[in-house]
Amino acid sequence: MSESKLLVRGAGKYVDDIKLPNMLYMAIARSPHARARVLSVKGGLNQSDLKAVVGGGGEGWGGPINPASAHPVFAQDTVNYVGQPVAAVFADDRYVAEDKLDEVEAEYEKLKPIMTIDEALSGSPLHAGTKSNIITQRWLGPDFEDPESPVVLEDEFSVARIVNNPLEPRGLIADYDGSKLTVYISTQAVFGIKDGLTSTLKLDESKVRVIQADTGGAFGVKSALYPEYVIATYAAMKYKRPVKWIESRSEHLAASQPGRGVRGKMKLFANKDGKVTAWRGEVLVDAGAFGGSAGSMSPFFIGMQLTGPYGIEKAHVLATSVMTNKPPQGPYRGAGRPEAAFFRERMMDLLADELGMEADEVRLINTTTENFKSPLGLEIEASRPFFKQATLDLRYREKAQSEKAGLGFFVLLSAVWGGESARIDVQEGKVNVWLGGNQHGQEHYVFVKKLLNEELGIPQDIVTLNNGDTGMLKDGVGTWGSRSAVVGGAAIVSAARKLKTQVENKEGNYTLENLLKGNYTSEVFENQNVQLNSFGAVLATVKIDKFGMVTVKECAGCYDVGRALNPKMIESQIIGGTIQGIGQVLYEEVVHDAEGKLLTKNLFDAGLPIAENMPKFTIQIVEHPSKMPNHARGLGEAPTIGVPVAVVRAIERASGKRIRHTPVKPQELLE
Amino acid sequence: MTMRKVKTSFKVNGKPVELELEPRRLLMSALREDLGLTGTHNACDTTNCGACTVLVDGKAVKSCTMLGVQANSKEILTIEGLAKDGNLHPLQKAFIEKQGLQCGFCTPGMIMTSYWMLSQNRDFSDEEIKRMLSGNLCRCTGYRGIVESVKYSKDLMRKKGGDTE
Amino acid sequence: MYPRPFDYFSPKNLAEALELLQILGAETKILAGGQSLIPALKLRALSLKNVVDITGIKELNYIRKEEKMHRIGALTTTSTLENDPEIAAILPILKETASQIADPLVRNLGTVGGNLCHAAPANDLPATMLALNASFAIASKQGTRTIHSDSFFLDKFKTVLKPDEVLTEIQILLQDGRVGSAYRKVRKGSGGFAIAGAAAHVSVADDNTVSECRIAMTAVGPKPLRAEKAEQAFIGKTLDAAVLDNVAKLAVDASKPVTDVTASEGYRRKALGILVKDALEVSYKRAVMGDYEKS
Questions:
Q1: Quick one: which of A197, A319, A587, B74 has the fewest CB in 10 Å?
Q2: Which residues of chain B from 31 to 70 reach within 8 Å of chain C, CB to CB?
Q3: CATH 3.90.1170.50 domain span(s) along chain A
Q4: Which other chains touch chain C, taking contact as 3+ CB pairs less than 8 Å apart?
Q5: CATH architecture of the domain covering C61-173
Q6: Interface test with C, best of A163, A549, A589 (most C CBs within 10 A)
Q7: Does B73 reside within a domain?
C-alpha cells in the first residue's frame, strides 16, 4: 500500500488507476427481481457460457456448501436477490460497456420473495433440493436445568443489515497472456482470491498470481470471492484481453455482501445481587440467498461470544443462519462481535434496571478474577482489574449521574486463527517485505518497520512493505478480524529472527552491516492456535432534541491493545470505528420493500455519517502485553463493538424508552 | 450511438490542454482517463461522497457532476497541482502529520475542499470546518484527523508567512 | 453510472438559447448548475437527445436590490445567494434556505433557477419563494411573462414551464413596515433531502398583531404547499403558544406527507408542526426586533 506521503499527492495506485494495453471494461446485467424464474437470457456472456458456482463448491465458511443452495456465478434457473449477476458485456470504453447493457434481454417469471427471518423459517425452501431455509444450525454450550432464580429476564433484539461502504468500491483487472493469469485487485486477501478463482474455474494454481492494488478501505467486504471476479477472469481468459471491472456505488449498495442483519433472543437467570448464573440464547442471522458466505458461520461466532467478559457458568445457545432473497451476508467490521455485545449488554442493562443497581455495579459483580473459559468456548483473562480501572478512568459514576451516560464492556476476539505469513528480502542494501495480510489504510508498514528496527536494527527508511502478492509468498491469510498487528506482527518477528540466524550462520555474528552487505531471504508462515482476546469499555452521552434527533455528545473509551505499535494509527482507528458505531445506532441500515426492491439506494439512504456527527472523543490506551512475541492484541474492531452498546444505553436513559434494535429512528423517540 | 465530440480547451494545474470530448463524458473521466490524473477519485454515483472534488475557477466542485465540455475556458486545479517542485503543500504535510488519512481514497477530495476553505482567507471554527466538509465522506478516519489537519495547515501556513497559492 | 449519449449546445446569450430550445424540440433540457440534471442522467433515470448549457449566459447571474424589489438572476448559484451580505441583512430567510441545500460543493454549482425548475418535492427554495410572495420572469422566443410562485409549481418535478421557456429572474417585493421571514427544516443527521420544511413570512402591525401571514411547506406533498387556513388563524393574533399550536395544527392538516425510506408520514407531520411554529416565531421576532437571529 502506498504510504501516506504518496496518497496525499493523489499518487496511490488503486485498481481503477491501472490501465493495461488493449483492456476491456466489463459491465454486469443484474436481476431486477428479488426472486424469479429465469425464462431466458440473451446477450452478453451468461450461464450458457459459464455454469459454475462461486468458490467451486466444497467448503464454505460454515462447512460444506449444499450444491442446491450454492451461489451461481451467472444466474441459472432462478434469480434470488435484486442485483444478482445475470450476464456480462464488454467494451473498450466504460461508457460504452454500460450502453451495451441495453443489449441484454432477460425474461423472468416473478416469484414471491422471502424477505424476513420469520418468512424464511415458516416459508417453503427458496431452493429446489433443500429441505428448509436453514443454512446452518448448531447448539453451543451444554444444556442445563433452569436454576432456581429470583430474577429471570427475557428480551429480543435486532441489528439491521449494514452495507460496508468503503470509499473505494470493489474492482479488479484480470490479465491472461495465454498461459499465466495475473489479477490486480482491491482486496483484503490475495490468497483467498487466488484459491477461490482457482477452485471455481479449475485453474492450474501455479499459473495464477493475484496482486493487491492499493486498496481504499474494505471493512470486511473485500475478503470474499464474488461472481463478478470470476466472470472478469473467465472473460479475460476467453477474450485474451485484460478485463477491468469497477463497481458503481449503486452496485455496492445492492449486490456486495452487507454485514449485521441479526436477531437475538436472550434469557438470563440471576441472583438478587446481580450475579448471572445462567444464560440461554437464540441467534438468528439473515444470511441472504445462498449458502457458503460468512453469514453461514456468523451465528456460531456470535453465539460463542455471548458471555463476553463475564464469568457466566452455564450457557446454552441455538445459533442459526437462514436464507432470504437478499445478497449473501458477509463480515462488516466487528463481524458478529458487535451483535454479541449488543445482545448481552442490553440484557445487563435490563438486569441493572430490574434490580435498581448501577450499570457498572451489575457488570462488576459478573467480571472474573481469574482466567475463565465460558461454556460457549470463549476464553478470557481476568476481567475485573480492567473493568474496575476503566470505570474509574472513564469517570462513569460521575457521568452516569450528571449526564445519564451509557456504558458498554466487551471482549475483542482477534481472528488470529490461520496465523500469517511474512517474507523479508535483503538485497543491495534495501529491505523488501511482503505480508500475507493486505493493509488497506492500517499503515502496517509502520509496525513492520518498527519491529524490524527492534529485532535487527534496520533503519526504517530502507524498508518497503509491498502490497500483497501471491507471487512473492507461498501462502497467507488476510487482513480482517483485528488480527494483523498480532499475527502479521508475530510473523514479521519470526521472519526477522530467522534472518538473524542466517546472517549468524554465514558471517559468524549478526550486525546490521553484515545483513545489508549480503543477499538474504526469509519466509515464515505460522499458525496461531490460541485465543487472543482483549478488553474494552466505552462510555457515551447523548442529547435528544425536540425532533427526536440524537446527537452523541461524548464517546470515551478504554482499549487494551497489548502493545501500542502505532499509537497515532490506533487513535485514528478508534475514532473511525466510533463513527461507524454511531452510524450503526443512528443512521445505517439496508431496507427492502415487501417485493424485495432495495429502497436504500444512495449514500444518504445508506446513512454514512458525516463530519458533523462527530462526538467529543476521549481515548485511553491500555497496554497489558499479550503472549505474542510482539506483545500486541487486536484493536481494529473494538470501537464498533463497544460504541453501539454505550450509545444505545445513553439514548435509553435520555429518552426513557427501552431500545432493542439499531438503528434507532427519531420517530421512535417521539412516540 | 455517440454524439459529435466537442473541442474543449482549458487549463489544468496551470497547463493548457485541449481535448475532443463526447458531451456525456464527465469532467472526472476527462481528468482521470484522458489526462491521466488519477488522483481524483470516483467513489459514488449519486453526487454524495466528494471523492472527486477539484477546483474549477477557484471553487471546489464535484467533478463527477460536471460535464467535461463545461470545463471550456476554465482553470482547474486537481490534487496533483498542489505540490510545488516536489514540495508538499502545507495541507498535504498537515494531513500526514495529523492522521488525516488511512486508506487515502477520500483524501484528494478532502484536501481540495480544504484548500478551497483556506483560500477564503478567513478563520473557520471547528463547527464551520465540519459543515464545509459535509459534502466529503470518509469511512476510515472518523473525520477528527481531517479537521485537525485543516486547522494545523493554517498554523503551518502562518509560520511560513505563506498563502494557499 | 454514466449518462447515455446526447448532443451539447452552449449558447452565448439568452436569444440564442431560446432559439435553440425552439428548434431542438423534444428530449431537450436546459443545463444550469447540473446538480440535479447530471445525477439523473448518470443513473439513466433520464435520457436526452440534447442538452442546452446556459451557464455561459453571464447576464442571468446577478443579485440586484432595487427600492421596492430584490431581483435575483436565475443563474445565481445557491452559494452566491448564501454568502451575499445584503441578502443576509434584508432577507435572511434566503440565506438560511440556501445554506441548507445539499452541501457546499453542490452549492458552488447549483443555481437558484435550477432548484426551482427541477421542483423536486423536497427542494428548499420553492417553499421559501411561496412564503416571500415571489414572482418569476419566464422568457421564450415569444417574449417574457411573469408568473406568481403560487402558480408556478404543478406537481413533483413539474412546473408551468414549457419546453422552449427559460426561467430568467426571481422577483421579491420588499415590503414596508415590520416584516420578518424564516425557513426551518429537518433532515437525517447524516445528511440528505428535507424530511419536512416550513417557510414563513409575517407582517406585524403597530399593535403587535399579525397583519399578514404566509406559510409554505416542503417535502410534505408532491409540490410546495401553502397553508391558507393556518395563515388566517394567525392574522390579528400575537405570538402566543396556544395560537402557534393551533396555527401549526392547521398547517399540518393542509399537508400531504408520505412514508418513505427516510421517514414515516406520521413523523413528517410531527416534525412539520414543530417547524411551522419555529418558522413563525422567528419570523415574528425578526419583524419586531429587526436583527433577530440574523446569523
A1: B74
A2: 45-48, 50, 53, 59-62, 64-67, 69-70
A3: 4-111+170-246
A4: A, B
A5: 2-Layer Sandwich (3.30)
A6: A549
A7: yes
Q: Which of A:582-641 have CB within 8 Å of B?
A: 601-604, 608, 610-612, 614, 617
* pLDDT cut 70: percent of chain A above it: 100
Give the predicted TM-score (pTM) of the model.
Answer: 0.97
* The CATH homologous superfamily of the domain defined by A4-111+170-246: Aldehyde oxidase/xanthine dehydrogenase, a/b hammerhead (3.90.1170.50)
- Rg of chain A on CA atoms, in Å: 25
Query: Are the Cβ atoms of A610 and B134 closer than 8 angstroms?
Result: yes
Q: Which domain holds residue B74?
A: 6-81
Q: Could you tell me how far CA A208 lies from the centroid of its own chain?
A: 26
Q: Which residue of A has its CA nearest to C262?
A: A605
Question: How many residue pairs bridge chain B and chain C with CB atoms within 8 Å of each other?
Answer: 87
pLDDT string in tens for chain B (165-residue length): 456 899 999 999 999 999 999 999 999 999 999 999 999 999 999 999 999 999 999 999 999 999 999 999 999 999 999 999 889 999 999 999 999 999 999 999 999 999 999 999 899 999 999 999 999 999 999 999 999 999 999 999 888 654 444
- B110/C204 Cα distance (integer angstroms): 46
Last residue of a domain, one of B39, B63, B81: B81
Angle at C247 between CA C244 and CA C251, to 5 degrees: 135
For the stretch C26-36, pLDDT in tens is 999 999 999 99
Complex ipTM: 0.96
| Closest-CA residue of chain B to A7 | B104
Q: How far is CA A279 from the centre of its chain?
A: 26
- Among residues 23-42 of chain B, which lie with CB inside 8 Å of chain A? 24-25, 29, 32-33, 37-42
Say if domain C7-53 classifies as CATH 3.30.43.10: yes
| Chain B residues with beta carbon closer than 8 angstroms to that of A14 | 38, 41, 105
Burial of A283 (0-12, 13-18, 19+ CB in 10 A): buried
Grid cell of A258 as nine digits: 452487507
Based on its alpha-carbon atoms, the radius of gyration of chain B, rounded to whole angstroms, reads 16
Nearest residue of A to residue B138 by CA position? A167
CATH topology of domain C178-289: Enolase-like; domain 1 (3.30.390)
Q: State whether residue B65 sits within 8 Å of chain A by CB.
A: no
Residues of chain A with CATH 3.30.365.10: 262-416+530-669, 420-526
Q: Which residues pair with residue A245 across a beta bridge?
A: A172
Distance between CA atoms of residues A86 and A101, nearest Å: 11
CA distance A142 to A280: 11
pLDDT of residue A149: 97
Of A504, A510, A472, nearest in space to A212 by CA: A472
User: Which tens digit of pLDDT belongs to each residue from C119-141?
Assistant: 999 999 999 999 999 999 999 99
A604–C193 C-beta distance less than 8 A = yes
Q: Count of domains in chain B? A: 2
Asked if A28 is an interface residue toward chain C (Cβ–Cβ < 8 A), one would say no
Q: What is the fold, at CATH topology level, of the domain defined by A420-526?
A: Aldehyde Oxidoreductase; domain 4 (3.30.365)
Q: How far apart are CA A438 and CA A509, in angstroms?
A: 34
C-alpha angle A353-A354-A356 in degrees, rounded to nearest 5: 60
CATH code, B40: 3.10.20.30
Nearest-angstrom CA–CA distance, C64 and C59: 12
Among residues B57, B81, B105, the one where a domain terminates is B81
**Best mutation target, B10, B61, B132, to test chain C (most C CBs within 10 A):** B61
- Locate A335 and state its grid cell: 463481524
Domain map of chain C by residue range? 7-53, 61-173, 178-289
